[in-house]
Amino acid sequence: MFVRIRFRCVEPKLRIFGSFGTPLVFWFLMGSGLKNSFRGDLNYLQYFFPGTILLILLFTAIFSTISIIEDRNQGFLQSVLVSPTPRSALVFGKLMGGTLLAVMQGLLFIVMAPFLGLPLTLWDVVFLLVVMTLVSFALTGLGFLMAWKLDSSQGFHSIMNLFLMPLWILSGALFPLSTTPSWLSWVMIFNPLTYAMSLLQKGFFGTFDSHYFVLNSSFICFLVCLIFGVIMYILSVRMCSRSS
Fold it and tell me: If both were cysteines, with which of 13, 45, 103, 140 could 98 make a disulfide (CB 3.0 to 4.6 Å apart)?
């Protein structure tokens, strides 16, 4: 499953452009338009940089699970389910395939950071690599759960626009949590992607703009992302086992 998803997603050039090119264009246009709207040490191009990486991870991880729908329609999924391979191994291979693709595209975008006034040390790169791997695994698991229940890619895209994009917007990717109304801040606190954004911003900026202790603690943010990923994996395995 790991090898299959890697080749299924690397070959189509349009899929690569959709998961990497779209966030890149979005970052450049929106970042340029709001470049001088931030006061302080950061301009908006710099602030929006970690948010764009999270969007790349989201797009790549989620799009990689569309192949579940395609495999079901082609009969490949049924042949895999009747094999003696443990369901946990099948799911893990699927999730790791999407994770690898997402992290690779995230690293390509990180190369631009020094040219934007965001110098990174070797430790920063390692830190970001760990964060991206953890977040990508969780997001691929979320995509797995969505794709497993759907019969068409059109329905998959509809769910993504309805559910996943607001989840990304409310992570602090577009605007700092400290500038939001109190009720919206609490909504963002319960969003697991907010903790992922906190870690990404700490990797680039060394800090996260929040007066909430849970978001200022790297340990808590890592723990939330880890729990998110484990829950997505367990639910995916259980769903796969029930369907077989």
Answer: 140
